[in-house]
Amino acid sequence: TLVNVVLGLIPPFPESSALYTACKMVRWLSAKLGPTVASRHVARNLLRLLTSCYVGPTRQQFTVSSGESPPLSASNIYQKRPVLGDIVSGPVLSCLLHIAHLYGEPVLTYQYLPYISYLVAPGSTSGPSRLNSRKEAGLLAAVTLTQKIIVYLSDTTLMDILPRISHEVLLPVLGFLTSLVTGFPSGAQARTVLCVKTISLIALICLRIGQEMVQQHLSEPVATFFQVFSQLQELQHQDLKLGPTGRSEGQLPEVAFSDGQQRPVDPTLLDELQKVFTLEMAYTIYVPFSCLLGDIIRKIIPNHELVGELAGLYLESISPSNRNPASMEPTMPSASPEWDSQGGGCPQDDGHSGTFGSVLVGNRIQIPNDSQLENPGPLGPISGVGGGGLGSGSEDNALKRELPRSAHGLSGNWLAYWQYEIGVSQQDAHFHFHQIRLQSFPGHSGAVKCVAPLSSEDFFLSGSKDRTVRLWPLYNYGDGTNETAPRLVYAQHRKSVFYVGQLEAPQHVVSCDGAVHVWDPFTGKTLRIVEPLDSRVPLTAVAVMPAPHTSITMASSDSTLRFVDCRKPGLQHEFRLGGGLNPGLVRSLAVSPSGRSVVAGFSSGFMVLLDTRTGLVLRGWPAHEGDILQIKAVEGSVLVSSSSDHSLTVWKELEQKPMHHYKSASDPIHTFDLYGSEVVTGTVANKIGVCSLLEPPSQATTKLSSENFRGTLTSLALLPTKRHLLLGSDNGVIRLLA
């Protein structure tokens, strides 16, 4: 929801405090949720929103820059001319880059780049097609995001993925851009914007990698870009018309070009193409590449002379006096590799020989005067964003920027798990356990009796035999071998702590060692201690009520259930559960998600269901043949119980027969947690199993390796949003596994 707020606020309030706050919240969430959830839910939605920023002709109009725009020059080798969509997409790009700053370069190469490839991938149909407005906007968004990515890639990474960028991004974009059969919904304007953005992108890559690498990796994209001018020149000399037969059959005429290839051509698109690939566009594309490539331009661009001639004609059209009278006549490209036609009679030497300028004249670089571009032409003002191009002082850092090293950068096991997770479909409702160790939490000097994640899943609590409760952060650090220290230690208990949980409504922690302690997780301050009424009748089980309730339910060894409201002194309710029977000690309590019922499990295997509103016992039944080890309540009046008789049973609250019954072959399931409609189980043999609440009995189990988990498994908790497991052991160490 917050991610969608970002785009919703941008058009009406481009500089509003609400937009600023929304962006800040998205950034905060990205850090709080961790790499997998941030990438799966935040980054994915931001990437989709990026396309929406460029939908429609209005978003594809060049913005009117303030002040006088500098021409192509030594300090402005190529243009970054913004459109309205660039302004709208600014906050979205900012949030995307923030996620990359948090979790490192893999976010750029493993998530953003594949999404860009998806955006620009051609359709499945091989015949002529017309783009829809969403695909058109996706092309613009893809080129914009790619340019941002290139800036932040290290030299090594850029060279490693350069073939992918060439074949999966540049060539597909150029396929649409130079297509003679595919039209753009917004016509020439959208194609022009895409053309200018693509020029900027390729020029940026050329600046990063140098001439030799351009020749090796980018020859095909650059040659394809230039080739469209030759194709349009040839089509102008042919009387290309689509006859009624071809139109009715949907077939397009095939035209033989000078390179020996026959290509289909849609005559209705010729007008759109000629509006895009004008003399000015020839000048715009020729200037940067003639400067960047030098003599290599002759090797990789067969028609560079033709484009140079067209660029010369553009200069003549805006400033006829700039051309030598001898070269005023339009001429066909000559054998000379240099750009002779564009102004050998320049009246003064600019003194910039050997630097990046606008055009090559003989063996020097010629810089046009500012007055040459008084008429900016249909492409809009030629300027960089924020003044100047990449070469200017304000844009120097735009060529390459270092991603700041973050303590949460992905590496090792975290990177491997993250790569897997971002490829999993969001519709996949199953829990997959891969036994990947992500973090270790040493600190307890005794066995870990219980673990409980906070509702936000950025911290968790653990209770131990060492009579302490510890609060641990769940942010990713290191490569999976890191050990994390506790954020807070609560040491007010006098006995072994067997229960810990969060009272969600007031955000308090509840822990029990025979007496219930309520304390503040931010300060560690004790807020209340509830002692048993009789020291000979200790508390044996505790559960907290779900929000918005603020009550704690406690069972004592005399089979009495008591409710305490943490806001008020004294008892709230007291109910007897035995009913004249002697079912033994209450081993486990579970409250329904609605808070309307509570179920108690006894050491005899007996279970009692109580209505919390009336205090009436709704049902009591012999559920198991051994001790009840744990009970969980699920939405839909479903109960799950495990017992020392090796069974795990799924019940409907008021039905006599169980829905499903699982039997563990070797060891009882002494700890389990729920993930949607699945149960994740753990045994003292260090086996993790996953079984369904809905399907017939079947269970897949995994034996924990000694490399990932040492000691005996004593407690288990699942992080449902992050899909991680917290495993406590008898040696006092807690492991985070995925």
Set down the secondary structure blueprint:
Layout: H1 2-9, H2 17-33, H3 35-52, H4 84-103, H5 106-120, H6 133-152, H7 155-177, H8 188-209, H9 211-217, H10 219-236, H11 244-249, E1 254-256, E2 262-264, H12 270-276, H13 279-293, H14 297-300, H15 304-318, E3 359-361, E4 364-366, H16 412-422, E5 437-441, E6 448-453, E7 459-464, E8 469-473, E9 488-490, E10 499-503, E11 508-512, E12 516-519, E13 526-530, E14 539-544, E15 551-556, E16 560-565, E17 573-576, E18 586-591, E19 597-602, E20 606-611, E21 617-622, E22 628-634, E23 638-643, E24 647-652, E25 660-663, E26 669-675, E27 678-683, E28 687-692, E29 699-703, E30 713-719, E31 724-729, E32 734-737
Give structural notes:
- By secondary structure, the protein is α+β, with helices and mostly antiparallel strands.
- 31% of the residues lie in helices and 22% in strands.
- It contains 16 helices and 32 strands.
- The strands form nine sheets. Strands 5-32-31-30 form a four-stranded antiparallel beta sheet, with no helix packed on it. A four-stranded antiparallel beta sheet has the order 6-7-8-9, with no helix packed on it. A four-stranded antiparallel beta sheet has the order 10-11-12-13, with no helix packed on it.
- A hairpin with a 2-residue loop joins β3 and β4.
- α6 packs parallel to α8 and α8 packs across α12.
- About 13% of the residues have low confidence.
Explain briefly what this protein structure is.
The protein has 738 residues and is an alpha+beta fold.
> What low-confidence regions span 5 or more consecutive residues with pLDDT below 50?
10-14, 66-75, 242-248, 323-365, 367-397
Distance between the termini: 27 Å
Strands, total number: 32
Helix fraction, binned, reads 25-40%
Percentage of residues in strands = 15-25%
Kindly report the spatial arrangement of strands forming the biggest sheet.
5-32-31-30
Using only C-alpha atoms, the radius of gyration works out to 35 Å
* Global structural class: alpha+beta
- Number of H- or I-type helical stretches: 16
Organism: Microcebus murinus (Gray mouse lemur)
Keywords: Cytoplasm, Cytoplasmic vesicle, Endosome, Lysosome, Membrane, Mitochondrion, Repeat, Transit peptide, WD repeat
WD repeats: 441-472
Subcellular location: Cytoplasm, Cytosol; Cytoplasmic vesicle, Autophagosome membrane; Early endosome membrane; Late endosome membrane
